[in-house]
């Protein structure tokens, strides 16, 4: 079946149900995320409505992401060496033209590390740093099957950081978020509600994030998730 927008057939068949959709801060581009596990997103240019043109974005396009004005940051690798502490920068006008933003990557290699990014401070006409809340997962040091995170702690692990979007050299380290993401029950990689999700202020001077503060804040009596039974509070950090 042909995919259509406002009755006009799209330039490529889409053929998927949508998990999520985002619009960049310029309002020019919309990004569609197919439901299920997929390495492919679709970029729609609102400035070309007559063509209903979608562009496939499937080159190092995984990971949590954030959008500026016609640009995207996402946590993935391009080329080698592979490391979890790597992010991609690309313009939405050319989504296949991605570039690593960390060079060289940290060592020793780490695999089980993820993040949530925030770019509310983005401005038109200037590329400003993007904020990230980095967290290790599968941190069960007694695991005997070799599949869990045995990597030594490195810089940026479990920290609130920012990194440059104009080059590959500068990373700012602001604080540890002190959120223990290990689940309270079961063998999941992490407790979902324990993940830090920092949000940067539009002026770039402040950020807030959630943390269970190493599970020292007491019990969450309203929790209905057995993997996250401890309270999480909101913390404010000045980005000096």
Quick overview of this protein structure:
The chain is mostly beta strands and 240 residues long. The protein contains no helices and 17 strands.
Characterize the structure shown.
By secondary structure, the chain is mainly beta. It folds into two domains: 1-58, no CATH class; 63-238. The chain has no helices and 17 strands. It has strands spanning 4-5, 8-9, 18-23, 29-34, 41-45, 54-57, 65-67, 71-74, 88-91, 94-100, 113-118, 130-136, 159-163, 171-176, 199-200, 206-211, 233-238.
Approximate strand percentage? 25-35%
General form: globular
Task: Please report the total strand number as a whole number.
Answer: 17
Helical content band? under 10%
Provide the succession of SSEs: EEEEEEEEEEEEEEEEE
With strands numbered from the N-terminus, the spatial order across the biggest sheet is: 3-4-5-6
Largest sheet: 4 strands, antiparallel
Task: Give the distance, in angstroms, between the N- and C-terminal Cα atoms.
Answer: 53 Å
Sheet/helix structural class: mainly beta
What is the domain total for the residues? 2
The radius of gyration is 19 Å
Mean pLDDT comes to 92
Question: Which spans of ≥5 residues are poorly predicted at pLDDT below 50?
Answer: none
- The number of distinct helices, counting runs of at least 4 residues, comes to 0
Characteristic terms for this protein:
four-stranded antiparallel β-sheet; 34% strand; 17 strands; 0% helix; mainly beta; 240 residues; 2 domains
Please write out the topology:
Elements: E1 4-5, E2 8-9, E3 18-23, E4 29-34, E5 41-45, E6 54-57, E7 65-67, E8 71-74, E9 88-91, E10 94-100, E11 113-118, E12 130-136, E13 159-163, E14 171-176, E15 199-200, E16 206-211, E17 233-238
């Amino acid at each position: 079946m042909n995919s259509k927008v406002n009755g006009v057939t799209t330039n490529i068949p889409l053929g998927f149900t949508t998990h999520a959709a985002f619009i960049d801060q310029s309002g020019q581009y919309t990004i569609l995320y197919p439901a299920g596990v997929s390495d492919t997103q679709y970029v729609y240019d609102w400035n070309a409505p007559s063509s209903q043109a979608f562009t496939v974005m499937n080159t190092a396009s995984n990971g949590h992401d954030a959008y500026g004005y016609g640009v995207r940051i996402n946590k993935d690798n391009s080329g080698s060496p592979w490391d979890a502490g790597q992010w991609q920068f690309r313009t939405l006008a050319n989504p296949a033209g991605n570039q690593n933003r960390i060079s060289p990557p940290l060592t020793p290699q780490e695999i089980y590390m993820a993040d949530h990014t925030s770019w509310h401070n983005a401005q038109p006409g200037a590329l400003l740093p993007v904020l990230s809340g980095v967290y290790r997962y599968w941190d069960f040091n007694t695991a005997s099957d070799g599949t869990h995170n045995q990597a030594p702690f490195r810089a940026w692990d479990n920290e609130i950081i920012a990194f440059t979007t104009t080059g590959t050299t500068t990373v700012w380290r602001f604080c540890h978020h002190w959120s223990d993401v290990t689940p309270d029950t079961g063998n999941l990689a992490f407790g979902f509600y324990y993940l830090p999700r920092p949000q940067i202020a539009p002026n770039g001077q402040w950020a807030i994030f959630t943390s269970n503060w190493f599970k020292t804040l007491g019990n969450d009596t309203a929790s209905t998730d057995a993997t996250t039974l401890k309270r999480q509070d909101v913390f404010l950090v000045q980005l000096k």
